[in-house]
Design goal:
Number of strands of chain B: 14
CATH architecture of the largest domain in chain B: 3-Layer(aba) Sandwich
Helix content of chain A: 55-70%
Oligomer: heterodimer
Number of domains of chain A: 3
Largest sheet of chain B: 5 strands, parallel
Helix content of chain B: 40-55%
Number of domains of chain B: 2
Mean pLDDT of chain B: 88
Structural class of chain A: alpha+beta
Order of helices and strands of chain B: EHEHEEEHEHEHEEEEHEHHEE
Largest sheet of chain A: 5 strands, mixed
CATH superfamily of the largest domain in chain A: Histidine kinase-like ATPase, C-terminal domain
Shape of chain B: globular
CATH class of the largest domain in chain A: Alpha Beta
Distance between the termini of chain A: 34 Å
CATH topology of the largest domain in chain B: Rossmann fold
CATH superfamily of the largest domain in chain B: Response regulator
Strand order of the largest sheet of chain A: 6-8-9-11-10
Shape of chain A: rod-shaped
Radius of gyration of chain A: 49 Å
Strand content of chain B: 15-25%
Largest interface: A-B, 55 and 45 residues
Strand content of chain A: 15-25%
Number of strands of chain A: 11
Number of helices of chain B: 8
Order of helices and strands of chain A: HEEEEHHHEHHEEHEEHHHEE
Mean pLDDT of chain A: 82
Chain lengths: ~425, ~220
């Protein structure tokens, strides 16, 4: 619910309540005042009547007009005196007319009589009606006016807030345009803008320094690694290396390359998380994945993998071209790496999903942890390649367990999360299947 | 052939320079932007290897002034930044190649040589090693003047060997040269092995001597020794 609707609603119901109460109170007060007036006049007439009785000691009527008084002899006089409302039929137009009546008992000539003195309320009722109607009219007008005014006013008062909201919504951390909020007349909004502005500047700064940090960190790590590699490469030119020395050098060399890959992978993840890839394009992932497989033809042949593609529809999605490339490269290498010699890779593309399946041994870790960083299952490739590799130096064992850096699927997941692709994994009938939705 | 290596990491600059000197280049080193700028104003180089992040300046602006001075100088960028934008920007302002750190010295050497070949001979060039003759423009290989058909990868492999004669090449550097950076290593190392086997077989069949020697635990060496 919008703030203005909410305040209007509260204001409306509160006003209607107050309005009804006021009307009731007003009615009661007017009625009270009128009754008070009528009753005091009745009491004056009673005194007149008493004075008359005292002077004449009898009652012939005539002093009062019709219906104004009735004197009825009764057997015994009660010492009461009370007022009540009554309706009396008008003689001429046969309408019931409201009266206020004072009833008391008195003795005339020793005979007890009940005396009722009445006064017509018709004028007073009309008065109440007129007052009530005009009051309703005026109050409603006032009410409507103030309601209209209040909603206009708060609409205007809150306008800066909505402006700010719109600007904050448009604010993009990765773009270089800062959040510019104007100074407002109202202190609270001014403060709000101030705080938001400071916060956005801080965010921007943090984002920039994070960006620079990741890039610098990468640079600072890659350069020494390049030095290690270069030095090792120089060292292996030496003719006098013993076997174990070459073995150690090779280990150093490969470890430093792995570290570099790891660094690049983590940097890539950080960049995706920071949304540093700004330009998204419409990329047909189905076309791209078939191209990827074509690029990998040699390795497919080498591992004797058969590829089946079944594209019933293209699979275009919005994402940065670089990341689309990384995503599909990782998926394809994954399907190759965890395959078996003579196995197969299947690509299926429909309008709502793109799936890549490959034959391979059952996963050794639970599927939902597969996409976590550094989660490596048993390295299937290593065992296969070691088994089929008969290199003359017999060095295959050195290469076995250290291939994967364990970031490939984490990167896939991160790209999916950042660009609205759902990635699911299933394993059934000896086939791993990863689907993008 | 005169070369300038612009790199602020002293050790790396030395390694590159030592490696290239061994390959017959005259190599100079500049460790800062100012030093590099001075050198390119004073001397002429056939090829310059530039790091993008330098103390005192940006590698890109160095490349721009270099291009303004001598347009024929070949430029190879070596950078720790693996960003596509950097690569594109580098090529746009006139550099010829881009290598991401860490790189293999043998790869850098091969790229430098290929660049110089393209620059100096206008395409009409050939590489000769003993009885092997390669025409890079036509991608043709002759042994004892008889054409020897090779597959694309075998040809690339041979050219890589010919660029790095008598140098121990690691299997990883060969694999990366042939398939790029992101191919899975275990498989690519197997494939390196089978490609080398095929190349050797084809060369020997056509009457060339077997110049490939494997080095235990490291890789291969191509040469006379």
């Amino acid at each position: 619910m919008k703030l203005l609707t909410k305040t209007n609603r509260v204001y409306l119901s509160f006003s209607v309540g107050i309005y009804l109460l006021t009307a009731l109170a007003f009615y009661a007060i007017i009625k009270l005042v009128i009754y008070d007036e009528v009753e005091s006049r009745l009491l004056v007439e009673k005194r007149d009547f008493e004075a008359y009785i005292q002077a004449h000691n009898s009652w012939q009527g005539g002093y009062f007009v019709e219906n104004k008084i009735s004197v009825i002899p009764v057997t015994n006089a009660l010492p009461t005196e009370d007022f009540k409302d009554t309706l009396i039929l008008n003689r001429y137009d046969h309408e019931l007319v409201p009266f206020r009546e004072l009833t008391y008992y008195t003795r005339i000539n020793g005979q007890a009589h009940r005396v009722s003195i009445r006064k017509s309320l018709i004028q007073s009722y009309r008065l109440i009606e007129v007052i009530t109607v005009s009051m309703v009219a005026f109050l409603s007008l006032l009410f409507l006016c103030s309601f209209w005014f209040q909603s206009r006013l708060s609409g205007q008062l809150w306008q800066p807030f909505y402006n700010t909201l719109a600007k904050v919504r448009k604010f993009d951390l990765s773009s270089s345009t800062p959040l510019l909020l104007p100074a407002e007349e109202i202190t609270e909004f001014n403060e709000l803008n101030d705080v938001l502005q400071k916060m956005s500047e801080k965010l921007h700064q943090d984002y920039q320094s994070l960006k620079e940090f990741t890039e610098n960190a990468s640079h600072e790590i890659q350069t020494p690694l390049a030095l290690i590699n270069a030095r090792v490469e120089q060292l292996i030119q030496s003719e006098t290396l013993t076997e174990s020395q070459s073995y150690w050098l090779d280990e150093i060399y490969r470890a430093s390359r792995r570290m570099s890959k790891l660094n690049q992978g983590l940097l890539l993840l950080a960049k995706i998380e920071n949304r540093q890839f700004a330009d998204v394009d419409l990329v047909d992932l189905y076309v791209l994945i078939t191209e990827k497989l074509y690029d990998m033809e040699e390795i497919l042949q080498h591992k004797q993998l058969r590829v089946f593609t079944k594209g019933t529809a293209t699979f275009p999605r919005m994402l940065p071209v670089t990341l689309a490339d990384v995503l599909l490269s990782n998926l394809v290498s994954n399907a190759i790496k965890h395959n078996v010699t003579g196995g197969l890779i299947r690509i299926e593309s429909t309008t709502d999903q793109l799936c890549i399946s490959n034959t391979g041994p059952a996963p050794t870790i639970t599927p939902d942890r597969l996409f976590e960083r550094f989660k490596k299952g048993r390295d299937a490739t290593a065992s296969i390649s070691a088994a089929m590799n008969d290199t003359e130096e017999g060095t295959a064992r050195h290469y076995a367990p250290t291939n994967s850096i364990g970031l490939g699927l984490a990167i896939v997941k991160q790209i999916g999360d950042s660009y609205g692709l759902t990635i699911s994994y299933t394993y059934a009938e000896g086939e791993h299947r990863i689907c993008l939705r | 052939m005169k070369m300038l290596v612009v790199e602020d990491e002293r050790g790396l600059a030395e390694s590159v320079s030592a490696y290239l000197t061994k390959e017959g280049f005259i190599c100079e080193i500049a460790g800062t932007y100012a030093e590099a700028e001075e050198k390119i104003y004073l001397y002429r180089y056939d090829c310059v290897v530039v790091d993008l992040t330098l103390p005192g300046g940006d590698g890109f602006s160095l490349i721009k002034s270099l291009k303004a001075l001598t347009a024929t100088t070949g430029i190879i960028i070596i950078s720790a930044r693996n960003a596509l934008e950097d690569k594109i920007k580098g090529l746009e302002i006139g550099s010829d190649d881009y290598l991401t750190k860490p790189f293999h010295l043998s790869e850098l050497n091969a790229r430098v040589k290929s660049l110089i070949r393209r620059r100096n001979f206008g395409g009409h060039n050939e590489i000769r090693f003993q009885e092997i003759q390669v025409l890079p423009n036509a991608r043709k290989v002759y042994i004892h003047d008889r054409e020897t058909p090779l597959s694309r990868k075998e040809y690339d492999l041979l050219l890589y060997f010919l660029s790095n004669i008598d140098v121990a090449l690691t299997k990883a550097s060969i694999a990366e040269h042939l398939w790029g950076d992101d191919i899975d290593s275990a498989d690519s190392l197997d494939m390196v092995y089978s490609h080398i086997k095929n190349l050797r077989r084809k060369l020997v069949e056509k009457g060339a001597a077997d110049y490939v020697r494997s080095i235990y635990g490291i890789g291969y060496k191509f040469g006379l020794s």
